[in-house]
Amino acid sequence: MNLKIVALAVSTAFALTAQAQDKPKPPPAWHQGKPPAQAESKLAPHAGKMTETPASQIPVSKLKAPKGFKVELWASGLPGGRAMAVSEDGKKVWVGTRSIGRVYEVTDEGGKRSVRTVIDKLNQPAGVAVNGGALYVFAIDKVLKFNDIASNANAQPEDLTAKFDLPKEQHHNWKYVAFGPDKKLYVPFGAPCNICELPSDEYAQIRRYNADGSGKEVIATGVRNSVGFDWHPKTGELWFTDHGRDWAGDKGFHDELNRLSKAGLNFGFPYCHNNGTPDPDVKKEKACEGMAKPALLLGPHVAAMGIKFYTGKMFPKEYRNVAFIARKGSWNREKPSGFDVVTVRVGADGKGGKITPFLTGFNESKEAYKFWGRPAYIAQMPDGALLVSDEQVGAIYRISYGSAKPAAKK
Amino acid sequence: MQAPGKGRWAWLAALFVSSFAFSQGERLSQCTACHGPDGNSVTQGVPSLAGQPQLFLENQMILFREELRRSPVMTPILAGMKDAEIVALAEHFSKLKARPVAQSPSDREVARKGEALAKKLRCGVCHTANFQGQKQMPRLAGQREDYLVSEMLAYRDGKRSGGDTIMAAALYGVKDEEIRALAHYLSRLP
Hints:
heterodimer, A: mainly beta, Neuraminidase, four-stranded antiparallel sheet, disordered N terminus, B: mainly alpha, 9 helices
């Protein structure tokens, strides 16, 4: 690893290695940028769960949604399940994971669901996307395409890794991927640190490619770590969530909701955050000049993940074109934030954004970390119901409205 | 309804064989053969499991099973094991009492050096102040000295697969003799 790391982070905690002067020492990524005031802080990323959580141990009844909405457990037994890609007919949902290295396939079998593992032993295959009948799987270091997987359970993957020009650093390079309305494949490349000068210009950006990996184009830079995006139903513009840097106290920095009004915008990382605040550690003259500002701040450390503009007909009209955003929940904060799904009503021009809690109850305290679940991604089904994945208990919930036919028991 | 008689006994016997003889008894004796009857290992290179956080043990077993943490010994043992069995085994060993197993004469000088290093590297931030471990982070106190050395070397040199990259970064540039001092100190803690 050859990261050009911000010196201050390393100075006290890891001064030991002055002898290794040939290369700078990378501290644990979650430690980078820790200020002296937080030197003794015991905050650390939450442990994921890699074993199956039985349906009986998932307290769905604790989840609260607005009146008229119904929340039910739709599928379970998917440890680490997060991003979802839905087949065109809505019969199959593919689910990516990180540390357990699997991609699951959930099949809706006339009201009950079955789960199988499509592929395993991959390095954080978090990215899943569907194009026609093909499933694309993005691990940190691998791109696989399964042709006709919906009709052929034995489809063997085609290895497209070489086509996508993946950089070597792994941190923040697990992926969310999706095909845009332009039929291009959108792929983010996170900054391989909490806060640092980038080791090369391959990071902190979003790219798009043709479906075969050709035609690479960097469409946004200065993006620290985006793991969720969708396209506005009216304008077709890309809107993406982005995780703010850590170790800046309970109040900062916010995760962002960004709008890509044109290709080529720079969103500020590492020099400028949020609505124009220069980074306290990585400095440069006029740090915020020319940087694109977020459409909306989503809360400090909330871990804003999946976003879905609702286009279905099942929910009441006022939800049409409203963004649903899953906030998986903070770790780098003494007081918890996030642990919910919110709706964001915002103009197509990015103005007047407003956040309203939609699905809550994952964390049972406002003051302390007493969470049992962590909502990660949102998918819309052909009938207009929403699916919400819970990475902590490896489950998917279905949210429906009114007299819509409930999903039969699993 | 099943009639009482022969069929029922056969069914019970089958249940007995599958759930006891295989899951609990045999699984456990497979573990303890190397890791020690009370979870404190007296086998060279094999870690103690007693008193480790349950989640840490679960995660490691899953990583072995999924071949994400590679071990020619552990992977075949874990192959096909159900999550529920893994959870039960992890719970079992997490509740046993850890006790340091002496492997070499104590050297106060080295131990003191290890203690200072552990402070400097802030091992206790994750592994807790008395190194009992928590959640996904293992207990270091009383772990076998040779195992601590071999794993820290492997982490530092990027040879331990599976899990997070945090330990590789935490040990980046730490010298062999410093790793030995850390292990000497940690392995002797209660």
